[in-house]
Design a protein that fits this description.
There is one protein chain. By secondary structure, the chain is mainly α. The protein has two domains: 2-159; 178-229, no CATH class. Helices cover 83% and strands 0% of the residues. The protein has helices at 2-7, 12-21, 23-29, 32-42, 45-62, 68-106, 108-116, 118-121, 126-139, 143-159, 164-168, 177-191, 193-229. Helix 4 packs antiparallel against helix 5 (45-62). The longest helix is centred in the middle third of the chain and has 39 residues, at 68-106. 21% of the residues are buried. The model is unreliable at 1-11 (pLDDT under 50).
Length: 230
C-alpha cells in the first residue's frame, strides 16, 4: 500500500529528479527517458497514470544499484512503456477525431487546420483537442484552437527537423534521407551509448559536407560575379 500511495504523487518533477540524481541513466538509456517525461505531460491523465507507474518501477530498480543488468532492465521498461503509451495516444486520437467529426464537418477551415497538423497534435490530449474544436465551431472563432495547434507544432519543430525535410524532399533522392536519419535518431533514443555516438557522427559529417558545399557555392557565386564584370 505504501508504494501504491506514492504512485499518484509521481510527476514530471519526480521524473526530473530521477534523471538529475542518475545522469548515467540518461546517457545509457537514451532519449526515451525525455520522451517518456514529455508523454507524461502531454498525453492526458490515463497515459500520465501509466507513466507515473513506470517512474516508480525505475525507482525500485535503481534501489538495487546501477549495474549493467539494471540498465538493460530499465531500457526494456522504458521502451515498452513508450510503445504502449504511443498506442494509447493513437487510440485516443482516433476516438477524439471520431467524436469531433460532426463539428469538423461543419467547419472546413477547422477541419483543415486539424488534419494538416495531425502528427503534432497526436502528442497532446485528445479530449482537450475535442473541446477546442467544439468551442471553435460553436463560437465561429478558431483563434484559441489556432494557438493550441501552434503550441504543438512548435514543440514538434523543436524535437524534429524544423521543416527541413520539406526542402530535402525537393532534392532528387532526398525523400530517402529523412527516413534514414530518423532511423538513426530512433536507435539513439532507444539504445543510447554507441547509437548516440553514431547519431552525433552523422550530424558532424553532414555539417562538414554542408560547409564544404556552402564554400563551393560561395566561390561559384564570386566567380560568376567576376565574369559578369569583365
Amino acid at each position: 500500500m505504501k508504494h501504491l500511495g506514492r504512485i499518484g504523487d509521481l510527476s514530471s518533477d519526480a521524473a526530473q529528479q530521477i534523471m538529475d540524481n542518475h545522469p548515467e541513466l540518461k546517457e545509457k538509456v537514451g532519449g526515451n527517458l525525455d520522451k517518456l517525461k514529455d508523454m507524461g505531460q502531454n498525453y492526458g491523465p490515463q497515459a500520465k497514470q501509466e507513466i507515473d507507474k513506470t517512474w516508480q518501477q525505475i525507482e525500485d530498480v535503481i534501489k538495487t544499484g546501477i549495474s549493467a543488468d539494471n540498465i538493460e532492465k530499465i531500457k526494456k521498461i522504458v521502451q515498452e512503456k513508450v510503445d504502449k503509451v504511443k498506442q494509447m495516444g493513437d487510440e485516443a486520437w482516433r476516438k477524439g477525431i471520431e467524436q469531433a467529426k460532426p463539428y469538423l464537418d461543419k467547419n472546413p477551415k477547422v477541419k483543415e487546420l486539424v488534419e494538416q497538423n495531425a502528427d503534432a497534435l497526436k502528442s497532446g490530449n485528445a479530449q482537450e483537442l475535442y473541446q477546442k474544436v467544439k468551442e471553435a465551431v460553436e463560437k465561429g472563432d478558431s483563434g484559441d484552437l489556432e494557438q493550441y495547434v501552434t503550441k504543438f507544432t512548435e514543440k514538434a519543430k523543436e524535437s524534429g527537423f524544423g521543416g527541413l525535410d520539406q526542402y530535402i524532399k525537393k532534392i532528387p533522392g532526398g525523400d530517402q534521407i529523412i527516413p534514414k536519419f530518423q532511423q538513426i535518431q530512433e536507435a539513439a533514443q532507444k539504445h543510447g551509448g554507441e547509437a548516440e555516438r553514431i547519431m552525433k557522427d552523422a550530424v558532424n559529417e553532414i555539417s562538414v559536407i554542408l560547409k564544404k558545399k556552402s564554400d563551393e557555392a560561395s566561390e561559384l557565386a564570386k566567380k560568376a560575379s567576376n565574369d559578369t564584370k569583365k
